[in-house]
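Protein Entry — a single chain follows
Next Lines — sequence and tokenised fold
***
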Amino acid sequence: MKDIKPTRVDHITLQGKRYAASYYGKQDISGFKDYASREFWRVEGAYGDVSKLPLANGVLPYDQYPTLIEEGQIFAISFTKTDGSVEREYYVANGKKWEGRDATWQLKVTE
């Protein structure tokens, strides 16, 4: 079931501003080369501040998330690689589709 509640609320600083971030858990993605897992946060109230940032190359369809997605949301995703390093990416639900599917688009963020 995708209509899950966050398990905790953390704080994330994005573009110099601190936001509450609802945590939705960790997924095993060891089937992808060089990756072990990814964790998801919805960054609360950040859309108006960061949605106009330029887009990067990443796209993540809604069905890849552990929760329901609505247009106007920002997500932080931390990818843990098999070497233990962590990469954080930010995605916007801006209403754009990818290959006919609802999708989020990676933002170019300077932290």
